[in-house]
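To close the section, here is one more complete example, presented without commentary so you can practise reading it yourself. The ligand is iron/sulfur cluster.
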Amino acid sequence: MEQTEIKIGFVRTGNIMTKSSAPLGGYSVNPYVGCPHACRYCYASFMKRFTGHTEDWGAFMDVKEWPAITDPGKYAGQKVIVGTVTDGYNPLEEKFGRTRLLLEQLKDSGAEILICTKSDLVLRDLDLLLEINGRNRLTVSWSVNTLDEAFKNDMDAAVSIERRLAAMKRVYEAGIRTVCFISPVFPGITDIEAIFERAKDQCDLVWLENLNLRGGFKAGIMGYIAQKRPELLPLYEEIYNKRDRSCFEALEKKAEEMAKRHGCRFVDNETPYERVPQGHPTIVDYFYHEEVRGTGNSGVRNKR
Ligand code: SF4
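Output:
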């Protein structure tokens, strides 16, 4: 997917730290509004309706300005997730540096900071990340849901999978906890085992999350499958129109068996804070996101 021209604006917000309703809980921090990666399955694209923008999701971005965080200690021990509805390391971060500014403001907070990205721009800040890692709990997560760059290019305008994996390796080798976030898992397309094999020696955690098509992008993804992978259309109709869970249940089983084979822990809706022996990342089942929302990573799932 080509990166389109981005309309850039500026917005002022009273407080950059927002309480999160995501499964991980804590605070969500998004230094930008909008996201140039323009993923076709973006669950955050609903945000557009609150922004007044008429451009497509991915074609606008507002740079946030906020009062400096003067009491960072207030977030000690709290989870702070950077990049829940934008990628803080989107290409425009190179120019505007808002994510770096935010991390500078939080570096002595004692917060448990998680950075979610699809970029390798994070390497620009490796010095700062190492400093943060010395004083706080820090984790950096890359979304990787395919090793097929052509499929990736059909889905998003972020950097290649190879660049993401190379960045993950450097950050891991620098001594910072990393996550390979296999998300969203596309039935019949995402090969979780191949991705696991590729990433297992450079991450502490592997998170698994299914493709959720409840958003306004459902028609676009179903249209893509009909056009590019018509043999998968009956499966997608079963899952997304008839709510058949057997495909994802089979994948959960497969992930559990894979964990066993590789001597990895397999947990449901937990994010243990630990470094693990190389090659044995903990595999975390986050399938059916809606069942774990608000559970604070307690290992409990609100089964439907
Ligand atoms: S990187 Fe995340 S926030 Fe950005 S477009 Fe993709 S899914 Fe949406």
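Once you have examined the tokens, check your reading against these statements. Residues 246-261 form the longest helix (16 residues). Residues 7-291 form a domain with the TIM Barrel fold (CATH 3.20.20).
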